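I am going through a labmate's work and have reached the protein record below. What it holds is a sequence and that sequence's fold in token form. Please read both lines and tell me whether the tokens look consistent with the sequence. Do not assume that whoever made the record got everything right. Thanks in advance; the entry in question is below.
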Amino acid sequence: MVIELLAEKRAEPEKRAVLRGVSWEGYLAIDESLGHDCPGPRIYYFDEHLEIMTTSLGHEEFKKWIGDFIGDFLFERDVTAFPRGSATMRIVGEVCAEPDGAWCIGEETEFPHLVIEVAQTSGGIPKLDLYRRFEIPEVWMYRKEKLEVWTRRRDRTGYDLSEKSRLLPDFDFPLLARCLAMIPNWNAARRAFRDGLRSQT
């Protein structure tokens, strides 16, 4: 019975609502009322569109699993990195984002170099357009049971879907996919990912 309930909750998608014509001041007031420094609905703001999203168990699990795999890779490869988690990012008067995970790579900067987004449902604010405003070099999106790597174009006009990461060119995405398929056996999945990384060195 408990296992069935957990399976249901994992399959349950996140829920999102988009409000249009919201001013920056209106966004700040809503954010304050929701408790911007407390766990709760996630908020994105872009061109007077406000997205409020609740997360599901499945969403949070994949966010944690992928984030842990990235952390393991950075540690095993001795990459200098600064994890940002889901800290709110803002350009005052324009945009706001609360990514599923974020890292500065090599050096600490105002905005992260890499963000991840887990999307079990479609719709809402276009995240790639939003992250382009922050000039984020890479956005990794997990949707439809697949991790997509979006790298910023050289002319900074948008993103292209890529088979490899520019920031982490040695990151083994097939290994990640194999380990994600082992979920919910988290211990075995993480052990296999670490063993895979070590076998490559």
